[in-house]
Design a protein that fits this description.
The chain has one domain. Helix 1 (3-28) packs antiparallel against helix 2, helix 3 (56-66) packs across helix 4 (76-83) and helix 3 packs across helix 5 (90-108). Helix content is 75%, strand content 0%. It is globular. The protein is mainly alpha-helical.
């Protein structure tokens, strides 16, 4: 099975994980409900901890593509051509992204 197929089959799950992360991180952390705030903080810390353990290039891809408040305005092309140092090809980007997403899913879905 190719890594592109793997990512496509898991794309919705990855999207939900990082949508929830961004919602909690950027919109909900100031919640008036202390128990909810603690839940938000724990979830964000869990995701940030997972990502911090990824190899350097995988970490950059995930942080720059999925964990930024600018997520809606950042494309894969922006990440692989501007955020990666040195820039990488679209195919290399896809391999790095797929590897990182696979690792995150394996841990979260355990």
């Amino acid at each position: 099975m190719s890594s592109v197929h793997d990512f496509k089959s898991n794309k919705k799950t990855i999207a939900r994980i990082f949508e929830k992360y961004r919602l909690y991180k950027f919109l909900c952390l100031g919640s008036d409900d202390p128990s909810k705030s603690e839940e938000f903080i724990q979830y964000c810390e869990h995701i940030e901890n997972l990502v911090s353990q990824l190899p350097g290039r995988e970490k950059v891809v995930i942080e720059e593509r999925y964990m930024t408040v600018e997520h809606d305005y950042i494309t894969d092309q922006t990440v692989y051509s501007e955020k990666m140092d040195p820039p990488v090809s679209p195919l290399t980007f896809a391999k790095i992204r797929d590897s990182a997403c696979s690792k995150i899913l394996n841990i979260i879905l355990q």
